[in-house]
Specification:
The protein is mostly helical and about 90 residues long. It is about 50% helix and about 0% strand. The protein has one domain. α1 packs across α2. It is elongated, with a radius of gyration of 18 Å. The N and C termini lie far apart (about 75 Å).
Length: about 90
Amino acid sequence: MRPAPTLLALTLDAALLRIATLRDLSRLPDHILVDLFRRTLSAGKLTERVLKLFLATDCEEIILLVQLLNIKQPLIPVLPTRCSEKF
């Protein structure tokens, strides 16, 4: 028989299901942030918005993981929406 999941594991699973809707992770302790980040990666739910959410926490371990995994934020060029008539 498998042991019952811990409250922390259940909480991280629930947070992972709603990771795209979360707005702030800065109140979480670093060890929980790192665990949630790893679970997010393994679940394939790391998007640009979620990456910014994790990087906004300024957790050194997450910044190091992002650098070690060579994860880059996409650079989207901003084009003018209307041309000036001076050209």
